[in-house]
Hints:
By secondary structure, this protein is of the alpha+beta class.
Amino acid sequence: TSLIRAEQECNSLVRRRTAELEETNRRLAAEIADHGRALTALRERERWLQLLLDNIPAAISYVDAEQHYRINNRVYEEWFGHTRAELHGKTIREVVGEAAYEGIKDKVDAALSGRSVTFEGSVPYERAGMRYVRASYIPHWDDTRRRVLGFYVLVTDISEHKRAETRERQHLQE
């Protein structure tokens, strides 16, 4: 009888444990489904954000504190002849070229020290050629505002506007 009682207790324990495991599996399946829906929604938001960035007629990027590109839009790809994947992780100097980098280095340093910078000027990009640009570099702080994590870049090519201004001035002088 003690053997029968032990077998009954063992069977009861197996049934309880099986029920617990089935409930755990059910909860895990629900969590996996929730994570899948969240991942799908996140990918959709990312797709829409990239679509928005790619249709703004300016070069937009995010550069980390080590001066590596992390996010770029289509205009960056077009200006510099690299795909988004090729740009990702490259340094500013590698992408814009030495001459252009030397012309903007002080502004990059200012952004990485926590100051927003907006400027206009001619920039001799290695692959994109000479462009007259209006650019803004906006620092990205950590949540405590104690450390700059990188900066946001917005660069608009205003070369045609500047050429039109020059033509207008020349026309007025004639």
